[in-house]
Design brief:
single chain; 195 residues; Pyruvate Kinase, Chain: A, domain 1; 7 strands; alpha/beta; 36% helix; seven-stranded mixed sheet
């Protein structure tokens, strides 16, 4: 099989529209039924849902847990939530897979957890968006929003700071079976990395 990969010179939101278009195209080519999108406010997930609205593809926006930035507050914007629901997309809210309580222990007592080592390794080698795409796929799997089997493939989008700059075809896995997850294809990613 021969396939082109879209590379970007820079990281960040400026790549979102290209990533969304490439992910939608590849999902249709591979007959993939689920696209997982990292989306703090819901904006990036909405762009993805609009791009595939004429298909049967299910879009799952994965957002920060309540209290990530401000105690008791959720960062999803109501306007995006309403539009996502109208398009049949869902929002998955869960603690970060590669940090959560482990980060609280590190902050209080020092050292690094194994989860943080995995996170830092992915971020250093492949960039933040790559790490985020994998993390969100696991979060969606653990929340029951995507099917898990040896034959299942999904597309996962992640980004550096805001928007999307990475799209991957993955065989997803639950967190307790992390090493079964496979990156099958890189659809798009930045050449430059921000760690």
């Amino acid at each position: 099989m021969e396939k082109l990969i879209q590379y970007f010179e820079n990281v960040g939101e400026e790549n979102t529209n290209s990533v969304v278009a490439a992910a939608a195209k590849r999902a249709l080519e591979l007959e993939i039924g689920h696209i997982v999108v990292a989306s703090t406010s819901g904006k990036t997930a909405l762009k993805m849902a609009e791009a595939v609205q004429e298909s049967d593809i299910k879009v799952i926006g994965v957002t920060h847990q309540y209290g990530q930035k401000e105690k008791g507050k959720w960062e999803v914007k109501e306007e995006y939530k309403t539009k996502l629901e109208a398009l049949g997309a869902v929002i998955c809210t869960q603690s970060h897979m590669f940090s959560g309580i482990e980060r609280a222990i590190t902050k209080k007592f020092g050292g690094f957890s194994r989860q943080e080592v995995i996170s830092d390794t992915l971020r250093s080698l492949f960039g933040k968006g790559f790490k985020v795409a994998i993390e969100c796929a696991i979060m969606a799997a653990d929340s029951g929003w995507i099917p898990i089997s040896a034959e299942t493939e999904i597309i996962a989008l992640g980004g550096t700071r805001q928007g999307a700059d990475v799209a991957l075809v993955l065989r997803p896995a639950h967190s307790n079976d992390f090493f079964s997850l496979q990156v099958r294809e890189i659809i798009a990613m930045p050449r430059a990395k921000e760690v």
